[in-house]
Design goal:
mainly alpha, two-stranded antiparallel sheet, rod-shaped
C-alpha cells in the first residue's frame, strides 16, 4: 500500500506540475527535474527483474536519498557482483567434475595394472621385427628403432 501511495504521489506531482509566470523559469525547471528524477528512480527500481527481488527491496528504502546517477552506479556494482558469483559457481562445478573424472580415470588405470601384475606374462615366440631376436615383440624392443629403408 505504501509503495502504491508513493507511486501515485510521484505521478500526481508530475502530472499536476504547471509552470507559472510569477516564478523564475529556471527554478521551475529545477523543481520539475527533481520530480522527474524521483519518478525515474522509482520506475527503474520497479522494472528490475525478478531475481533482483532482495536488491529491489533494499533500493526501495534507499531510493529517496539517491540520485539517478547513484542508482545506476549501484546497479552496475550489483550486476558485476552477480556475474562474478555466477562465474565462481560455474568454475567450482567444472573443477569438481574434472576431479571426479580424473579419479575415475586413475582408478581404471590402477585396476588394469593390478590385473596385469597377477597374471604371468606370455613370452612372444616369434622374431622381433626390429632387432631380430626371439622372445619379445617389436613394440617392446629395447634396441633403437630402425629407420625405414628407401627401397621399401
Amino acid at each position: 500500500m505504501e509503495d502504491a501511495g508513493l507511486k501515485k504521489f510521484l505521478v500526481t506531482r508530475f502530472l499536476d506540475f504547471k509552470m507559472i509566470d510569477r516564478k523564475s523559469v529556471v527554478s521551475q525547471v529545477q523543481e520539475l527535474q527533481v520530480i522527474i528524477n524521483d519518478l525515474l528512480a522509482e520506475a527503474i527500481v520497479e522494472k528490475l527483474p525478478p531475481l533482483w527481488k532482495e536488491f529491489k527491496n533494499y533500493l526501495k528504502h534507499k531510493c529517496k536519498e539517491m540520485t539517478v546517477e547513484d542508482l545506476i552506479v549501484r546497479l552496475r556494482i550489483e550486476e558485476d557482483n552477480k556475474a562474478a558469483e555466477r562465474r565462481s559457481k560455474g568454475n567450482s562445478t567444472i573443477n569438481r567434475a574434472h576431479i571426479i573424472e580424473d579419479d575415475q580415470n586413475n582408478s581404471k588405470k590402477r585396476k588394469k595394472a593390478e590385473q596385469g601384475s597377477n597374471q604371468p606374462k606370455k613370452k612372444f615366440k616369434e622374431k622381433c621385427f626390429n632387432c631380430g631376436k626371439i622372445g619379445h615383440n617389436s613394440t617392446d624392443c629395447r634396441a633403437p628403432k630402425k629407420g625405414k629403408k628407401k627401397d621399401q
